[in-house]
Amino acid sequence: MIERTLAPRLLDAAKKFPVATLLGPRQSGKTTLVRAAFPDWGYVNLEQSRARTLAQRDPTLFFETFPRPLVIDEVQRVPELLSEIQVLVDETGDPGQFVLTGSHQPLLQEKVAQSPAGRTALLELWPLSLAELSAVPEAGGRGRDETIWAGGLPRVFDRALDPPDVCEGWFRTYVERDVRQLLNVSNLGAFETFVRLLAGRVGRVVNLQNLAGDVGVSAPTLKSWLSVLEAGFVVFTLRPYWNNYGKRLVKSPKIYFSDVGLACWLLGISRPEQVGRDPLLGGLFENLVALEALKWKKHTRSSAEFWYFRDNGTMEVDLLMDCGRKLHLFEVKAGMTPDFSFGRHMAEFRKRVPDAVSSTVVYAGDPWPLPPDGRFVPFRDIAARLDELSALAAR
User: Which domains are assigned to the chain?
Assistant: First the structure.
C-alpha cells in the first residue's frame, strides 16, 4: 500500500470526533485507506446489495448486525442512515464510533449538516499526489509526459494496470451508477460528449453557452451537468482573483479534471508519447499542477486559497495562492528550458498588487533562479514549494 499523506489526519479525527467522514473521487483510495487505518473495526460496504437493502429496510437491525466501531463505505447509497447515526452517537458522545466514506459531496454534506452536524470531521482524499508517488520506484522517476498520461488513480500503480483501461472503467462506472442516480439524463451520449468537450477545454475558461450548440442541449442543462460533475469529484474549478471579492464569485472559472490521466483518456490519448505532441499539452500540464495544489490543500488541511488572474487585456497569472493575507504567484509552463519571459506577467501583477510577494514558474526542467527574486521549480517539487511558502506565512 502507498502511504497516504491524509492518514494521520484521519486517525486524529477518529480520536476526536464520534464520526469521521471521508469524501473523495471514486477509486481515489478511500476504502484502502480506511481499512488499513482501522483494521480492528467492523466494515460494511453499501455498494453490496444485501447490506444496502438491510440498511434501507431496517436500520436498527443493520446496526445490530454491524456494531460499532464501524466503517461504512459509500454511505451516500443510503443517506438516511445518517439520521440513525446521529441518534447512536448522541447516546454517549464518545469519539471513534463511525468512519464514513462517500463520493457525492452534496448528498453527504447536506445530510451531515442536518444530522451529525458538530459530531463529524469532514476530510477529502484525492488521487495520489506526486509526493506520494515519489515513494513508488516505477512512478517516482517518470518524466512529464508519462506522469500526465498515468494520472494518480491508485489502481494504476497498486496493480500495474494500463491507465486508459482504468480510466475507461472509472468513467463507465461513474456514468452508469452516479449520473443515472443524480440526473434524469435521457441521452447519456450527449452527457459523454459534454464531458469530452470539457476535456478539450482543460485549463481554460468554459463558456457553457458556446458548448450548448455543440452538445445539442440548453446552457442551463449544461450548468446542471457541470454541477453534478463537480459534486462527483470528476472536475473542479478555479475561480478568478479580483480585488473586489464579490467579482470572484460571478466571473467564469477555469475547469480541470480530478485526475489528469482521465482527461488524457477522454481526449483519446492512449500512449504517453502522444502527450508531448498533443495541442492540449499546456492545458494538461496546467491541470497536473493545479490538481497538485488542490491535493496539497486538502491533504494537509491548509487554509490557503487558490485563484487564477486574467485582466481585460493580455495579462494572466495561472495560479495564485492566498496565504496569510499574502499572494504567491505561479506561472505554469510545460517547457523544459528556463525562459525569463515566463515571469513577465507575474512581475507586472506584483507592480499592481502590493500583497503579491513571490513568483514561481512551475515547469518540466531543473531548479533555476528567476530574476530578480523568483524561482523556476520542477513540477515534482510543487508540494515542497507550497510547504515553503506556507511556512513563511506562518512566521
Answer: 7-124 (3.40.50.300), 144-271 (1.10.10.10), 302-394 (3.40.1350)
Which sign does the torsion angle of CA 71, 73, 75, 78 carry?
negative
What are the two backbone dihedrals, phi and then psi, of residue 190, each rounded to the nearest 5 degrees? Answer: -65, -40
Assigned C-alpha cell, 175? 456514468
Which is it for strands 42-45 and 326-332: parallel, antiparallel or unpaired? Answer: unpaired
Cell for 250? 460571478
Nine cell digits for residue 146: 508519462
No. of helices (H) and no. of strands (E), the chain: 20, 13
Half-sphere exposure of 206 (CA within 13 A, CB side): 28
Q: What is the CA radius of gyration of the chain?
A: 22
Residue from 294, 167, 190, 283 nearest 237 by CA:
294
10-residue mean pLDDT series, the chain (395 residues):
93 95 94 97 96 96 97 91 89 93 70 59 94 83 93 92 95 80 74 95 93 93 90 93 72 93 97 97 98 96 94 89 94 97 96 94 97 96 96 77
